[in-house]
Amino acid sequence: MNICIIGIGLIGGSLAIDLKKNGFASWIIGVDNNPKHANEALQLGLVDEILPIEDALQNVNLVIIAVPVNQVARMLPRILDQVDHRTFITDMGSTKSNICNIANAHPKRQNFVASHPIAGTENNGPGAAFSGLFKDKMTIICEKEKSNNLALKLVEKMYQGLEMRTIYMEPEAHDQHLAYVSHLSHVSSFTLGLTVLDIEKTRENIFNLAGSGFASTVRLAHSSPDMWAPIFNQNADHLSEALGAYISHLQNFKNLIDNHEEKKLNLLMKRANGIGAVLQGSEE
Prior knowledge:
This protein folds into two domains: 2-169, NAD(P)-binding Rossmann-like Domain (Rossmann fold, 3-Layer(aba) Sandwich), CATH 3.40.50; 174-283, 6-phosphogluconate dehydrogenase C-terminal fold (Orthogonal Bundle). Helix content is 55%, strand content 13%. It has helices spanning 10-21, 35-43, 53-56, 69-82, 97-104, 149-161, 171-199, 203-209, 212-218, 225-234, 236-258, 262-272, 275-283; strands spanning 2-6, 27-31, 49-50, 62-65, 88-91, 112-118, 138-142, 165-169. The protein has an eight-stranded mixed β-sheet, with helices on both faces.
């Protein structure tokens, strides 16, 4: 099967590695508007060739769009315009409502499968790609009833080959849930990084005193702003709601600390410990 991957970074590159390894793809065409990334992807063997998007869309069975969500929204109509009825398209975007609305306005909507594999790291670029990124993770497909049955089956087969679990959601529900379980954690990490940078004016103190807890909490602050700013923008309403709830809890913590309410802090943290059981349940 010939496939085209648009965006050969962490997600696109990792897809390329495993889709070639498991035999899903026999030939992979890469598209990337960053010439350095395109050349690196070719040198690393992530793709078989690099082509301009107009050429890359010819004679492929599947087009995978693995670029920031603002770029997905901009290029999806153009891609749908150019492909024929035998070529199917899916995206990897972390927001779905805006992308689905754009797809729904196109006469070739049935060629498109809106999806979101929940996998990634804080690293980016072709050099960050690795085999196994998607294994045992979950992927979400939205509005499956609007996709051609052959397109849906092909994308489902792709995710099965990556050893992912697939669930189906409506775009609005997807965006609301992701605001809490993914997007909010990134805002929190970025904010913690900014807070410490503002308070600790000397870099030496940060490196000397930062422990593993700080490192793990702030890890997501290394994530690409070019990817996350569009996500925050497209999911602004749900993320604002999540931030409001988060700020309320932060203020409650601050009030208890200010008033030396140790017992109440203890009870609050014990309640928060319950998130462990929730996460274990989600992994079963």
